[in-house]
Amino acid sequence: MASEAVGSTGVSLAPDMQGSWLIRQGFSLVGGASIEKFAHRIPEGPGVYVLLIANGNEILERAGYRAQSDRAPWKLGRFVHLYTGESFGVRSRVAHHVTGTIKDSNFRMTLLALQAACHAISPTTQSWVSEDWLTDWLRQNALVGFRRAEFIKEVEADILERSPSPLNIAGRSRSTFTKTLMGMRREYRRSSVLVVPNRTGAHPNGPAISKRYAPQTESRASFSDY
User: Fold this and answer.
1) pTM, whole model, 2 decimals?
2) Domain limits, the chain
3) Closest CA to 81 of 48, 104, 105
């Protein structure tokens, strides 16, 4: 099966040897900036999806992945495959990840935790960033691959077996890096849960920041380690 580009991705998507598997399996591709415009082209039914990030290897390098794993993540051009998921409503699930909140997306939670721990997303941006900032960043840097599937858990498990998919925790053996991710996520929850920024946006563990970049307030029940 050939892949389909939904909207313009704006870059060459020449895959590496491993990433070409996604193309052969018929994954359709949509850039983060086109998610809302072309939402009707994404099936609201059972399927699997992969999330790739522009220059994702740089994020992994700052997070310590290369020092803890010898498995190179799959690539499509400059986009690096970081996360895999399945859902009975792929359109809604993809939207949760790109334009939603950490209440509904562990992928977003992990990215914010990585930024807070080691400036992994943007070394020139402060460690505490907001959901709005992350959404804008994902619109500019995310590439989503998706395809219909009936046996979604089996297909997701197959992808996770074949690929490193470094930011997945559930369904993986507890490697050194997954333990690192879990620790970063726990520290992020500890620092941000039930914290309400004051009027200047100040966070108790850091300098004053604007409200746009203040940590989000969520109930502890919103989070898991997966």
Assistant:
1) 0.80
2) 5-215
3) 48
